[in-house]
Structure formats: C-alpha cells, structure tokens
C-alpha cells in the first residue's frame, strides 16, 4: 500500500531519500574509481511530489567517459542506472538517425535492491567483458513504487560517509564524489610518475599542441579539488616549460613532477 504523508513531511522524506541514494551512488563510485574506471558524474533523484510518483519514485545513475562507453557499445550512450524498484542495470541507448526515437535496452544485475559496492563492481567487470550477456535481460521487482520508503531510507544508512571522509563530503554526496574522483586521479598520476618507467621519448609535437597541453594542465590545477592532482599538474607544466627542445639533458634537469610523485609515494609507504 502506497505511503501518504503531509506535504512538509514528504519534503523531509524526499531530502532524506535523495541524500541516501546519493551517498549510495558515491560509495559505488568510490569502488569503481578504485578499479581505475573513468567516472565523470553521478545523478540522484527522488520524486518532488508523492502525488506525481510514477514507476521510478527514486533513482540514480553513474556516468562514464565517452571513450569508455565507446569501448562497450560503439556510438551508443551507456551508463550504470539504479532504479528504486529494481536495483542496478547497465543501460544502453542508441540514438537513431532521422526521425526515429532512440532505442534502449538494459542488462540487470538482479542481486537485490541495495547490493554492496563490491557486487556492483563485479557486475561492471562482467559488462566490460560482454555487455550483451552480463546479468539478466529480465527486470526484477523488489518493491512497488511509493511503498516502503522509510525502510528504503533506513537501508541507505549503511552507505553513509564515515570518519575517513571530510566534513564537506559528509554533508553532501556530490562533494563526496568530487573528492573521491580527485583522490583517485591523483593516485593514478602519482603512480604513473613514480612507476620507474623513465624512458625518454622523442615525440613529435606541434608548438600549438604543447601550448594546449599546458593550458589543460593549468585547468586541472585551478579546478581540481583539494584531494586532486593540482600540485602535480602545476609541477608538470613547469617541467615542460623549462625543457629545451632537442636537449636530452633538460629532461633530467627539469623533472619536478616525477620527484614530487616519488617523494609522496615514499611518504605513503612509510605510513602503511
């Protein structure tokens, strides 16, 4: 039986549900980022008015870089979708040329309404192997839209931020995701620079392309969250500026970004 509430209490419940599903999505995104996946954004939604509830009273999605999508489904749009009645699926949308409407299909995890981030990550790994056979084509149903909302809100508390998260991340799932995204990419950059693969490449590059690369590094510096690789971007841009074209020794002289990465990797190893 569908739950009904007064407008003010529905607003409170909506906010609680939206924050809950947002932190659940952020917890899953943290796990996927740890696997090296290129996540661009997440989206959480709860119906604004209980009188307008349709099949999806609460939902959310995790979106990936275009190249990652293309590796699975060519030009089709695809993303990880959580539906409040059926759980997780990997949804693919083919945008038809001409007047035809888009066609879409989904592969369902079918592991309950709130499976662990590890279980969702395993499902995504299966999708990467074969997006056409991973999971099930049959959509499961674990609850009816509009029902058991308070129980669902309580279930989300398992994925609430903990002591390891910043105060800002604890108050807002979007900040939690941005900080996790920044930390993940910082970790990837530091590991790449400190990997020990220091072969010097003679890569043909136009001056305009080098200028564009420096601008991209500057953009990373000014937009990355505190958890992100802003200081590494700044150091790498300075290294590229100081190096002399064609001078092999300048690569050895100006390598502040690599040294920074090695220092931070050594510091982290000492505190493990």
Round the mean pLDDT to the nearest integer and report it: 89
Low-confidence stretches: none
N- and C-termini, Cα separation: 52 Å
Count of individual beta strands: 5
**How much of the residues is beta strand, in percent?**
5-15%
The Cα radius of gyration reads 23 Å
Find the structural class using helix and strand composition: alpha+beta
| Element pattern in H and E | HEEHEEEHHHHHHHH
What does this 3D model show about the protein?
Helix content is 49%, strand content 13%. A hairpin with an 8-residue loop joins β4 and β5. A five-stranded antiparallel β-sheet has the order 1-2-3-4-5. It has helices spanning 7-34, 66-73, 117-129, 149-156, 167-171, 173-193, 207-223, 230-242, 248-253, 256-270; strands at 39-46, 58-64, 77-83, 87-94, 103-108. It starts with 6 loop residues before the first helix and ends with a helix. It contains ten helices and five strands. It is an alpha+beta fold and 272 residues long.
Q: How do you describe this structure in short?
A:
This protein has helices at 7-34, 66-73, 117-129, 149-156, 167-171, 173-193, 207-223, 230-242, 248-253, 256-270, and strands at residues 39-46, 58-64, 77-83, 87-94, 103-108. With 272 residues, the protein is α+β, with helices and mostly antiparallel strands. Strand 3 and strand 4 (87-94) form a beta hairpin.
Topology:
Layout (H helix, E strand, L loop, with lengths): L6 H28 L4 E8 L11 E7 L1 H8 L3 E7 L3 E8 L8 E6 L8 H13 L19 H8 L10 H5 L1 H21 L13 H17 L6 H13 L5 H6 L2 H15 L2
Helix pairs in contact: 1-3, 1-4, 1-6, 6-10, 7-8, 8-10
């Amino acid at each position: 039986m569908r739950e009904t509430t007064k407008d003010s209490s529905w607003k409170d419940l909506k906010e609680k549900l939206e924050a809950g599903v947002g932190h659940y999505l952020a917890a899953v995104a943290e796990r996927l980022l740890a696997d090296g996946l290129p996540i661009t954004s997440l989206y959480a939604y709860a119906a604004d008015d209980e009188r307008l509830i349709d099949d999806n009273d609460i939902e959310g999605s995790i979106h990936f870089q275009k190249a990652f999508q293309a590796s699975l489904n060519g030009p089709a749009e695809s993303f990880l979708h959580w539906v409040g009645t059926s759980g997780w699926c990997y949804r693919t949308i083919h945008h038809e040329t001409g007047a035809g409407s888009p066609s879409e299909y989904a592969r369902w995890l079918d592991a309950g309404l709130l499976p662990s981030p590890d279980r969702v990550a395993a499902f995504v790994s299966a999708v990467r192997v074969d997006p056409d056979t991973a999971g099930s084509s049959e959509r499961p149903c674990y609850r009816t839209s509009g029902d058991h909302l308070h129980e669902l809100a309580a279930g989300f508390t398992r994925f609430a931020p903990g002591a390891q998260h910043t105060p800002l991340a604890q108050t807002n799932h979007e900040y939690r995701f941005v900080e996790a995204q920044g930390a993940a990419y910082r970790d990837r950059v530091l590991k790449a620079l400190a990997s020990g693969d220091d072969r010097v490449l003679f890569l043909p590059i136009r001056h305009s392309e080098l200028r564009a690369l420096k601008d991209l590094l500057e953009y990373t510096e000014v937009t990355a969250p505190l958890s992100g690789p802003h200081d590494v971007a700044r150091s790498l841009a300075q290294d590229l500026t100081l190096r002399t074209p064609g001078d092999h020794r300048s690569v050895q002289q100006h390598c502040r970004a690599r040294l920074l990465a090695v220092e931070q990797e050594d510091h982290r190893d000492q505190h493990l």
